[in-house]
Amino acid sequence: MSSYSEQTWYSVYDSVSVVQNALQGTVLYQEAPASQSSDNQSPSYAITQYLLREVPEFWRLPKLRQKAKCQKGWENPEGDQFFEKQRKTADNADKKTAKHFFRMMKNIGHDMHQMTDVFCINGLNPDKQAILDMCVAPGGFLATALRINPQARAIGFSLPKSEGGHNVLLPKHHNVSLKFLDITLLATDMGRLDIPNGHPDAGKFLPRQFSSEQRFDLVICDGQVLRTHERATYREHREARRLTLTQLALGLEHVKLGGTMIVLLHKVESRRYGMLQHLGQTICTTKLSMSIVWTLISC
């Protein structure tokens, strides 16, 4: 590796630390009560006002939220029953429902690509193209990426079905390697070599899955915490941050210079994700010469 590349990847490791510190910082943040601070002084309010001015899609979002709130949500007695049914359908999907979710993710990926070309890998050697999907199930995004880059090699991680994970419906392919494990337990890849014996998950942390030189043109980080996932009690209040941090840290460490990351976020106006987007833009423009596409779900 050249000295330039070494310096660049040292910057990547620094950026990973910044991501970790930023996410940890959100734990300490609390909105001031109304008696101490008005809503229009909160970070979320400032981000919301900016998005309302600059993003037409976000301008329509409050109306959709209010409509859902009235028809199926908190202002309707049937709202709890509706959302409970939705959760049960997602948690216990039969083959028909699973195929529906798979097709839905492929369609979303298609629409994203039509607008941004996000899944297109540029390079002179198609047989050396590489894709990493940090949380692959059901496989719709990876299926889209492989349709657009048919010669690419791909690695996908997914929570095992025995631990509450979903089925991967991606057709078997010799260029695709699937690993069924909990990525938040990749302690060695995250730089933790010594686990205290008294740790609740001491016997569950996993050995290295990535080589130090392994790089990917496209990294997909769209994993979400599953209600069906059985995990230690200490993880419950921080699992969403654990999963986000793991995907970002490993994704940043193993994305190629000039590569692309696709990251799923919820509620784009929140302080936490506003900070992440700002940090991501800073990394892209000053350190990696890469691109991050934030897939935003603001419901």
UniProtKB/TrEMBL annotation:
Residues 124-265 form the Ribosomal RNA methyltransferase FtsJ domain. One of its GO terms (biological process) is methylation. It holds the Pfam family FtsJ. It comes from the Eukaryota. One of its GO terms (molecular function) is methyltransferase activity. InterPro entries: RNA_MeTrfase_FtsJ_dom, SAM-dependent_MTases_sf. This is Ribosomal RNA methyltransferase FtsJ domain-containing protein. It comes from Aspergillus uvarum CBS 121591.
